[in-house]
Specification:
Arc Repressor Mutant, subunit A; 2 domains; binds calcium ion; alpha/beta; single chain; Rossmann fold; about 240 residues
Length: about 240
């Protein structure tokens, strides 16, 4: 039954009623559901069950949702794992922090399970639209990145980029619409054995924007945490 079949969702929530309600709806919609009731258990389940998406409550015993999110984002295996955060209205400022730490979306309590499932499906669709590594090129407006040729063109004109600028742009394009922390970018482009600081990322983003002015507004800085390249259909 469409994209939902066989997708595994981890639901992390310490309120048993909500947990069972969400699990019930997910299973009714053809998802597989695994559950955790605290932050530490959540990290363990992510490792053991490798879910396709995590629904993560913000207020949790043992370790709160923000910390769980931060830890998942700091490890390459789970840096891109889709996360929807559950928050209460009163926690709205935390919600913003949550999004900056790399949650992909959030749902405010009280919520209808039906609405949550709709958000889950929307997020999974968005992720699936991201081209795989096997794809030959990425496009953004007039810019085309030819992966095999290791070349970037603006209209018909080639724009020379250094290897790191190329790698950075490729990573931003591949994960467009998502916030990538400086640490994630640094690890992806420079590698773990690199001794530079996260400021290196800022310098290279600035150079990319100088060489490709059409990225000036497209690559946005998210507070002190990192960057994202906006989806073309994304507002603001
Ligand atoms: Ca809670």
């Amino acid at each position: 039954m469409g994209t939902s079949s066989h997708k595994k969702i981890l639901v992390v929530e310490d309120e048993e009623d909500i947990l069972q309600l969400v699990r019930h709806y997910l299973e009714k919609e053809g998802f597989r559901a695994v559950t955790a009731m605290n932050g530490l258990e959540a990290l363990k389940k992510v490792k053991e069950d490798t879910p396709d998406l995590v629904v993560l409550d913000l207020m949790l015993p043992e370790m709160d949702g923000l910390e769980v999110c931060k830890r998942l984002r700091s490890v390459p295996d789970t840096a891109m794992l889709p996360i929807i955060m559950l928050t209460a209205k009163a926690e709205e400022s935390d919600t913003i922090v949550g999004l900056e730490l790399g949650a992909d979306d959030y749902v405010t309590k009280p919520f209808s399970p039906k609405a949550l499932v709709a958000r889950i499906k929307a997020l999974l669709r968005r992720i699936e639209r991201v081209p795989s590594n096997g794809q030959d090129q990425y496009r953004h407006e007039d810019l085309t990145m030819h992966l095999a040729r290791h070349e970037v063109t603006l209209g018909k004109k080639e724009v020379p980029l250094t290897a790191k600028e190329f790698g950075l742009l490729e990573h931003l394009l591949r994960h467009r619409g998502r916030v990538l922390t400086r640490e994630v970018l640094l690890n992806a482009v420079w590698g773990y054995d690199y001794y530079g600081t996260t400021r290196t990322v800022d310098v290279h983003v600035r150079r990319l924007k100088q060489k490709l002015p059409l990225l000036e507004d497209a690559i946005v800085s998210v507070k002190s945490l990192g960057y994202k390249l906006k989806d073309s259909d994304e507002p603001g």
